[in-house]
Amino acid sequence: GLKPSYPLRETAMDPVRTANIQAFVASSSKDPSKTLDDVRYERQQLTEARRTRLGIGFLDRMDKDAECKQAYREVVDMRRNSGHRKALDKMVSDMRPEPELKGPKIVSHDSRTLFHGQDKKQNWAPLESY
After folding, report:
1. Residue whose C-alpha is closest to residue 68's, from 10, 8, 17
2. Which residues have C-beta within 8 Å of that of residue 67, sequence separation ≥ 6?
3. pLDDT tens track for 19-29
4. Phi and psi (nearest 5°) for 4?
5. Among positive and negative, which fits the CA dihedral 124, 125, 127, 129?
6. Which residues contact 49 (CB under 8 A, 6 or more apart)?
7. How far is CA 26 from CA 17, 21, 31, 48, 124, in A?
């Protein structure tokens, strides 16, 4: 996938991003198949956001806290829908750095596909929408 071209340090206090990571970590703690190692990177991002928060002035920090609280409520509401939850979880997983390759990458292609994405399932809207 494509990685964002902007540095993560500039977006460390983005309220929606931080709220989404908080909700992701909270939901993964309820999932018995997830371990602490599975969300280590996300926890580091939250720690970095807290450190960035401590570097700003008192009134600005109060404003950011109010924005983060509102964003968290909105993210939790969005996560109630399974489609939105999948999209938000994908956003968090896309933030992770690529794992280091330990050897050559072997890519295989299906000989029957004519173009990229042909083998993926298409999600169409209901006919009334067109």
Report:
1. 17
2. 15
3. 999 999 998 88
4. -65, 145
5. negative
6. 12, 13, 18, 21
7. 14, 8, 9, 17, 32
